[in-house]
Amino acid sequence: MFKAFLSLLKRDLVMGFRQSTDLYMILVFFVIAAALFPLGVGPDPAVLGRIASGVVWVLALLSILLSLDRIFAHDYEDGSLEVMLLGPQPFIILALAKTLAHWLSATLPLVILAPVIAIMLNMDMSGIPALMYGLLLGTPTLSLIGAVGAALALGARRAGLLMALLVLPLFIPVLIFGVTVIDAALNSFSIRPHLLILAALLAAAIPLAPWAAAAAVRQAVTNK
Amino acid sequence: MNETSFTSFLDMGGYAAYIWPVYGLTAVMMIGLLIQSIVIWRQNEAELTLLKSMKENKKKAAKSSAASEKEEEV
Amino acid sequence: MHKFANPTKFMKVANALFPVFCIGFIGLLSAGLYYSLLNSPEDYQQGHTVRIMYVHVPAAYMAVMIYAVMASCAASSLIWKHPLADLIARSSAPIGAAFTFLCLASGAFWGKPMWGTWWVWDARLTSVLIMFFLYMGYIALLNAFDDPQRGVKPAAILALVGVVNLPIIKFSVDWWNTLHQPASIIRLDGPTIDGGMLTPLYIMMGAFTLFYLMLLVIRLRAEFAAARIRTIRILGEG
User: What percent of chain A has pLDDT over 90?
Assistant: First the structure.
């Protein structure tokens, strides 16, 4: 079972990097959208510094949203999902592998780019480690929730728009606690309790989200 | 109910601008939901009776055409 | 219980109860309006604005209750494949969404004079807003497929995922100390609000519940008619 998990993870990663233009476009979107904020709210460093934590997190959410269709949509269209469902491994494990592959290939680059954008938006340096810890703990939860949304929207009209509608409300708790981590660090409070909440969200999402995603994929494939 | 108590009722201790819109919105929402539900129900029932009568007519038409064909054969 | 799983028998019972719902609703609504607008005490802090509570709290109760009904129907439609459960869930969603909106809007009209702002991003308000989005997502997902039956299962799964939000709504006022006041009706040591306010509140809750049941019967009739239209279409074309 673990072997199947690893081989699917490897396959999805290879596929993900083969379509690296997708990834490149998402990263560019992240940067361009961030550049809109200084132009929109004005270049005052004090104002930018105050909104930087929220802006980076919100843009990370939106960028993740753009890559969600990579998790299941291709395999749904070319029929690979049917083969995986017929296989001996429980599909929950495979859904988890696909989600992990999505996180490694599409989300981790965003996390690495995030401090650059935070600095561009004049975030105080004391907030940067908190931003990174928060993103590292929070974005896997986002990928897991996103996988559920991606699975639910399989085969729908305007699937991308629908996915945003389904997934964004569920992203809100992660956003709230992700930003409070940074605020705590900027006001020199302990960031531990906020990180623990993010960890708890992740711990709850790891078993629940692949289960819901697997159920959604199964019905999508059988009703295709 | 005399005039002053009625105006004081409408005034709601100075909060009329907040209280009456809430009750108005509630009324609008409830009536709207009710009308919408009834309209959908009526539409579906009308379509259903139409489809049923079409089915009946088809059957009758099939029967009568079969009958007329027989007559022609005779 | 399994007697009600049969749709025709269920509708027979529902149709028989329908006049009871209607008369009960009109009776309770008139009593509720009389008490809430004319015959209830002013709050010593909030004055007349407390009258907004008689819409706000029942609407909030309906929003959560209808979501719970929808989610349990979604669960039974996924597990036991009850066609009836699915119809109840899909008929309830727009009603629940409307009550959630009413709860948020009436809260805004109450917040403006009392807190000095229409809206705050406090935990209770935000979690109710998320519930409103979940209702919207449920309805959107249900109608997102070319085959109308295809949306049933994904929507049911979404409704179940959204159940996570219900305890957050309930406990948000206890976990985070924010503007929204803590629970005052449903608590272990009994309600903490004045009896003169409790009467209109309970009556309005009853009226809203009967209104929901009334609409549910009408919408179920529409859904059954739609189901029969579908079968006739399929048989007619086949």
Answer: 47
**Residue in chain B nearest C56 by alpha carbon:** B22
Query: What ranges do the domains of chain C cover?
Result: 19-187+201-237
Helix, strand, coil % in chain B, rounded to nearest 5: 95, 0, 5
What average pLDDT score do residues C3-14 get?
77
Total tally of structural domains belonging to chain A: 1
pLDDT in tens, A59-86: 999 999 998 988 898 888 888 888 888 8
Between chain A and chain C, the number of residue pairs with CB atoms below 8 A apart is 60
Length of chain A: 224
Domain of A46 in residue numbering reads as: 2-222
Cross-chain Cβ contact B48/C228 below 8 Å: yes
From chain C, the residues in CB contact with B12 under 8 A are 48, 51
Per-residue exposure over A173-184, b if at least 16 CB sit within 10 Å of its own CB, e if not: bbbbbbbbbbbb
| pLDDT, tens digit, 9 for 90 and up, residues B23-40 | 999 999 999 999 999 999
What is the pLDDT at residue C238? 47
Residue C11, amino acid = M
Work out the minimum CA distance from A148 to partner chain C, whole angstroms: 9
| Chain B positions in Cβ-Cβ contact with residue C115 (cut-off 8 Å) | none
Q: What is the ipTM of this complex?
A: 0.82
For the cut 60, the answer to whether the pLDDT of residue C119 exceeds it is yes
Q: How many CB atoms lie within 10 A of CB A95?
A: 28
Residues C19-187+201-237, CATH architecture: Up-down Bundle (1.20)
B33 → closest Cβ in C95, C105, C113: C95
- The helix/strand/coil state of C47 is strand
